[in-house]
Amino acid sequence: MTSADILIVDDQDDIRLLIGGVLGDEGYVTREAPNAQTALAMIAEKQPDAVILDIWLENSEMDGIELLKKLTKSHADLPVIMISGHGNIETAVTSIQLGAYDFIEKPFKTDRLLVLTGRAVEAGHLRRENRELKMKTTGGKAADLQGSSQHMSQLRQTIERVAPTNSRVFLTGEPGTGKDVAARMIHRLSKRADKNYVTLNCAIMAPDRIEQELFGTGTQKGIFDRAHGGTLFLDEVADMPGETQAKIVRVLQDQYFSRIGSSERIEIDIRVIASSNQDLSALIAQGKFRQDLYYRLNVVPLEMPALRARLEDIPVLARHFMQEAALAANMAPRHFADDAMALMQSYDWPGNVRQLRNVIEWLLIMTVEGTVSADMLPPDLKKQAVEMIRGKDGVELMSKPLREAREIFEREYLLSQVNRFGGNISRTALFIGMERSALHRKLKLLGIQGDKDAEDVNDEEPDQRVTTEGQAL
Questions:
Q1: Final residue in a domain of this structure, among 117, 137, 157
Q2: For the chain, N or C: smaller number of CB within 10 Å?
Q3: What is the CATH classification number for the domain harbouring 331?
Q4: DSSP 260
Q5: Which value, to the nearest 10 degrees, does the dihedral of the CA atoms of residues 368, 370, 374, 380 take?
């Protein structure tokens, strides 16, 4: 017996009733849809374990083949069994080539229906498990510093160069920028990838527990033991007590340590990656962080960019987080309308990538439709849109003469769009429907200056950016 959820899509009531009865007798939970639009709505509400889909759908916006194409693109892990009373070998082969799990001709045999349904459900579960396992074993490789922005391209290149070495790396950046993701990526690309990757979050560890966690006590092994041969990630190292900092310096220098309460020397081979969102130079000046430890950790410094500095990366990040969250919740992923994506790209994201991930998970839970529009976004993002309409510094456009209000709105709108596309004028012009030369003239007219000559040389490079003050970076 099984409780797997099967969606039956057929325009004939008696066929849906027949299939539902056969599967129900075997313990399956079945849902029924007479057309493609109803099927998509039901899948958006809850992704089934498998779909049984008729090729010919009357009174439907799409036939079965069109719906199959859509499902294989948006729900790659969802197995689809095609059925038809007018089937032939060519139709069956076409269905399989388009991604269907299998094909059944009407009238079908009960045994074959049950066998194929069971196999399809199992195949869907294996696909999801394999994807989850791959994400775990690669440290979330799919999310590793995704994006085509110049910031991320340069960061990935640096990581790829430094990862195979044993050099210590120091990651800085605001909270939520993905320092832990970068650390895992360095380990995964290193020669120690088959060894342990161990994390110590100094910010949440009680000061009197850090040394026990690091060194161990008596016969009990600590983090240094577990990380031997692999990588140790000291997250938020600025919160480490001063006494512990001194001991870490000695371990890094001597490559051995002793457990608390023991004089036995234990040699170690560990690569250390550290991170902090604080200004260590200021902490060193205040005597709160050891300068010698800083220099030992900061062999290769890497700064993680804030999300607001790479707004052009939001679409790929948002879609990835949606797929990831939908997979974990066994729900159908939501899609993003252009207005929703534009608004997300105009927001400043004080919580950075971590905040974006949380928003995407919220959208998956709180929305029931297949497409997320701007009005479905959380209140703080929608507030940003209102402020944009009002103009910079809260200027109320309704109180202004038409010409002045239009100029204020155009300036704020164009600044938002230019920033959204990472300063690339050609991409901005294409999106808003203007000629590139016309956009250049409009930017100059509104007091937004850019280096036109530099962009003419290599317009596809995102080096040409415009700030909110209207100056080229």
A1: 137
A2: N
A3: 1.10.8.60
A4: B
A5: 40
Percent of the chain with pLDDT over 90: 41
CA dist., res. 402 & res. 407, Å (int): 9
Domain end point (choices 348, 370, 390) = 390
What is the residue whose two structure tokens read 């200021």?
A: 282
User: Read out DSSP for 399-461?
Assistant: GS-HHHHHHHHHHHHHHHHHHHTTT-HHHHHHHHT--HHHHHHHHHHTT----HHHHHH-TTS
DSSP state of 33: E
Domain span including residue 344: 308-390
Looking at the fold, whether 169 and 294 belong to one and the same domain comes out as yes
Query: What tokens were used for 53?
Result: 């889909």
Structure tokens at 64: 């079965």
Q: State in Å, rounded, how far the first CA of the chain is from the last one.
A: 64
Residues 378 and 417 occupy one common structural domain: no
Residue 297 domain-assigned? yes
Both 365 and 451 in one domain: the answer is: no
pLDDT for 208-250, tens place per residue?
788 888 888 877 888 898 899 999 999 999 998 888 899 999 9
422: Cβ contacts below 8 Å, ≥ 6 apart: 149, 150, 310, 311, 312, 462, 465
